[in-house]
Amino acid sequence: MAKFRKKGSKGLPPISTASLPDIVFMLLFFFMVSTTMKEVSLKVRIQSPQATELAKLEKKSLVTYIYVGVPTHQYKALYGSEPRIQLNDQFATVGDIQSYIAQEREGMKEADRPKMTTSIKADFDCPMGIITDIKQALRKAQALKINYSAVQKSNY
């Protein structure tokens, strides 16, 4: 007579890992496409002013940022403790704003150029004279849509 063995004593078969590299690369590709990289490293300290009436900008790709504030600790020895203007990753003067706006405008699509908004992110203690000088330079560069960045004021 033949011997019969019980099939339950062998355990579970191993899980196939053949599709694992496909899944890993699919997730990697998804995060590469959907993640945006930080474009500018701030060299100035900005404590945003508080406001009660705020509106969110619709298309962030149409926004050009101008940062104004006191240089951070590592740049104070070189640039002092007076408020400075930062355009992209460089310190700049008011005279550099027109060429900066023209360069940013050139990088946009033709249809999006009239919709370009310039956002001024200034420190709370920044003197208004610098902001006025920036506004005058923006007016000369025909960048008339200006936004002032602020944070929501708490009710407490």
UniProtKB/TrEMBL annotation:
GO cellular component term, pick one: plasma membrane
Organism, as annotated: Plebeiibacterium marinum
Name the record gives this protein: Biopolymer transporter ExbD
A Pfam family the protein falls into: ExbD
The keyword DNA damage appears for this protein: no
Single Gene Ontology MF annotation: transmembrane transporter activity
Domain of life: Bacteria
Keywords: Cell membrane, Membrane, Protein transport, Transmembrane, Transmembrane helix, Transport
GO biological process: protein transport
Membrane topology category: Single-pass membrane protein; Single-pass type II membrane protein
Family as reported in the entry's similarity comment: Belongs to the ExbD/TolR family.
Record keyword Membrane present: yes
Subcellular location: Cell membrane
TM stretches of this protein: 12-33
